[in-house]
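mind reviewing this fold:
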Amino acid sequence: MDTRAPLLAALGLLAACAGPTASLEGVRDLLDDRLQSAHLDPAHLQRRDSDDDELASDLNGLLGGPIDADAAVQIALLNNRGLRASMTELDVALADLRGARRVRNPDAEISALFPTEGNESAALEFSLLVDLSDLARVGLRAGVADAEYERARVMAAAAALDLAYETRIAFAGLLAAQQNVTLWNEVVVTFRAAWESAEAMREAGNVPQLDVAQEHALYEESRLQLATAELEVLDRREDLNVLLGLTGAQVDWTTVATLAPPATSDPELETVERIAMDRSLELAAGQHRLRALTRRVGLERTRGALPALHAGVLAERAAGEWEIGPVLEVELPLFDQGQGAIGRVQAELAMALHRYEDLAIRVRSGVRRARNRYVVARERANFIRETLVPAREEVLRQALFQYNAMNMGVFQLLRAKRSHVEALQARVMAERDYWVARIALEQILAGRLVDAPELSGAMPMGGNEGGGH
């Protein structure tokens, strides 16, 4: 399973999730930077301005045959409505940024006084005022909005990475569940053979009814476990249907391949903590939040020191003559110099700083925990695959040899088969744990903190091949 390709697919299809917007290019650039620093090939990054028909065509093409993990991530990035909403939120932040850079419109006022008697003409008054204090605060206000926009851009990139991560995890779980069903089918066949053999031997008077009842109970329990495993496959498929945004006839997709064995190369384990800190989107968002609040403090201080100040012109017509002159309006900060607003933003800044420091500690701890679980999952998967399964295969071969030589009964042979299948089941679970742990570690290295996955800890108990009836 190539775990890098889904992230590259996320870049290639990200533009299709929300339509052609200038803000979306910033998200692609942000993801591209992190992928390059992770030594991934960004050549797949291409701008695609697609309409609904083109998107539907791409989706149908991906669903036309069996899908793998890469195709699943492409479908999710193409079709998940939640991601589209996240991309649209970025456009909202961009609109706020553009609005913050605008100067407020001038205020215009016109009034007329009509005489109640006589032939005097009406007195007219016209004024046009510009808020100079607002004009002076445009740069500060735009700085706050710019920091908030950068934070929204980071969170939009995080939403894309999160969706790719969840899809890869869900797909690995589905493959493991499907393999588990196959193995439980083998267990059912083995237990049925054991039950039927016990029944035949009871009829011949070689075993008691208790042995037959025990084998029958094991067979029925295995059928129940098979049904549970089949339900697990259905649940995993529904999890993926939600992530992929599929409905109706689209849910009849099929998968290809099984879980791959552990990869031969590892992520940068020696420098994983430093890399995770450098690429962390959570920390980047926190930095933008701190920058926005710092600028808001300056903005509120300016409001207190520079109250509302309007300047313009006043034109007045009386007795048929026009008179024009300047006008100035100023707010007198006698009772309120903005202390409340300044204090509130300063408190928010202090809280954000403490949360940022707490986040940095959690990122460091999270990456160490993910690295440790990845190493353990890799070692366990390799041990089960390279040592335990071959050992059980050898036991099964020897049991079959002894059975053919009439030195072992059918029950010992079936127990050896059962233990071999249990070892195969443990290998599937161990490989699933390995890929989940690796995907989580790669997600952290790409810049998104996730909880370190719990390992299943499933190990086959094996049977007593030397026993008998």
